[in-house]
Amino acid sequence: MNLPQRHAHMGEIVQATQVSTSGLEPRRARIIIVLLALCMALQMTSYGMIFPLFARKIGDFGDGVAVLATSLMAYSLAGMIAAPFMGSLADRFGRRPLILGSFAIFTAAFTGYYLAADSLVFIVIRGLAGALTAGLGPATMGLVADIAPEDERARWIGVIGGGTSAGFIIGPVAGGLLYDQWGYGPPFLASIGMALLTLLVTFFAIPETHTREERRRETLYQRRAASLAPKTGTAVSFAASLPHPLMAFGTLLFINLSMIFAWFFIDPQLPFYVFDELGWSTAQFGSAISFYGWAALFGSLALGQSSDRLGRKPVLIVGLVLHAAQYVGLMLSNVYWVIAAAFIIAGLGEALLTPALSAAYLDITPEEHRSRAMGIKGAVGSLGSLLAPALVMVVIGFVPPQSVFLISAALILSTALLVFIALRLPGRTEGARDLNWQVSQERIMVAQSTLNSMTVSAATARKLRLPTARF
User: 165 and 70 in one domain?
Assistant: First the structure.
């Protein structure tokens, strides 16, 4: 074939030697995700330093499990209401504002927990924090989906999960040791300082990945779709934005609900149980949480991509079974190292489960509604963390801790069985965002033939005399 060819009215036809893809260059995308994982590690470290102290602080107010459960309910109820709206805001205004705003609110909330004078103030602050930070999860997952190839989503979600887990390696141990040595002041002040550091790192390191041009294009697309729809209105728009198939979406939401419910069902009881009945120190409790974090961290880095290779469903099932180990260990043993080993196994389950679950959501969600779908996921999780402590308050007087742990274990194992029976995920479009697409001679010839036909058709329509291109 003779290339290039010149036509007076069309300029020069040039053979393409590479394909230009939209979006960030792969290396830059990887750097952004790693930096975001670092920010999540800093954030969860700051939270982990004060998490074991909530029960101590409420105990000093003269209250117990019921008040801690109420504070969880306030956080969860606010998050459940706010999460879908926050997810929509991340789709409409970008990921970066929601991430930065959430980290700023965490800083203010940690300060409020430290200065709270009574249980009521503590509960109110926790409720406000739940509402105003509900956009962090949807915005984070939306950012990963924006820049990670489809066939590597679980891998990079696992990196984010590894950052989160890293916070639970350092934070609880450091917070427990500082409290045992010097009381509330040092761990809370260190937590507040680290939260501020997280905000600064995020401000300078994390760019916007859902650009104004992309948001404008998606808005125009949605308006066009609405104008062509037989019916218009909010209901149609909302239904179109949901992940499909709806049965798979519902099953994934139940997985999320059961995981959150199981943990928050034992969460108000757990610190009082290990402090009062098992005689653990705050540092021991923090260390047990840290073992979970170590397992989740290394598991996320080593196993996070498993569902990209083996499929989402089998990895979800195995992850749920392993995740139940922490509840089984608490139920069957009062030996510290046995419980710690159970937490390690559960952390490995979390490392398998979380990336596969989030990637499964993104696989079936329209691109322009990713953060909204993750907001719905967050709202359902908040529902679980609302119902669980409410149930704890009902049963606390006559149900022993071992029965509480048994209920959580049974729920997680039943969910694994449900996934085995009911979950049907459509096949993923392989190579939908393949950044290693190769030029082939056949593709070149097809493109040239198409362009030549268009040229001839245009010339004929304009009654131009144009020599046919030679191939």
Answer: yes
> Domain of 456?
439-471
Half-sphere exposure of 163 (CA within 13 A, CB side): 18
In a domain, 391, yes or no: yes
Share of the chain above pLDDT 90, in %: 37
* pLDDT(263) > 60: yes
Pair 335, 410 in one domain? yes
The reported pTM is 0.68
3-state secondary structure the chain: CCCCEEECCCEEECCCCCCCCCCCCHHHHHHHHHHHHHHHHHHHHHHHHHCCHHHHHHHHCCCCHHHHHHHHHHHHHHHHHHHHHHHHHHHHHCHHHHHHHHHHHHHHHHHHHHHCCCHHHHHHHHHHHHHHCCCHHHHHHHHHHHHCCHHHHHHHHHHHHHHHHHHHHHHHHHHHHHHHHHCCHHHHHHHHHHHHHHHHHHHHHCCCCCCHHHHHHHHHHHHHHHHHCCCCCHHHHHHHHCCCCHHHHHHHHHHHHHHHHHHHHHCCHHHHHHHHHCCCCHHHHHHHHHHHHHHHHHHHHHHCCHHHHHCHHHHHHHHHHHHCHHHHHHHHCCCHHHHHHHHHHHHHHHHHHHHHHHHHHHHCCCHHHHHHHHHHHHHHHHHHHHHHHHHHHHHCCCCCHHHHHHHHHHHHHHHHHHHHHHCCCCCCCCCCCCCCCCCCHHHHHHHHHHHHHHHHHHHHHCCCCCCCCCC
394 and 369 belong to one structural domain: yes
**Sign of the torsion formed by the C-alpha atoms of 308, 310, 314 and 318:** negative
Q: What is the pLDDT of residue 149?
A: 84
Tokens, residue 345: 């196994």
Per-residue pLDDT band at 197 (split at 50, 70, 90): very high
199 and 340 part of one domain: yes
Q: Tell whether 413 and 450 lie within a shared domain.
A: no
What is the sign of the dihedral through the CA atoms of 339, 343, 166 and 74? negative
Indicate whether 347 and 308 sit together in one domain.
Answer: yes
Residue 344 lies in a domain: yes
Pair (459, 320) in one structural domain: no
7 pairs with which residues across the strands? 11
Q: How confident is the model at residue 214 (pLDDT cuts 50, 70, 90)?
A: confident
Count up the domains in the chain and report the number. Answer: 2
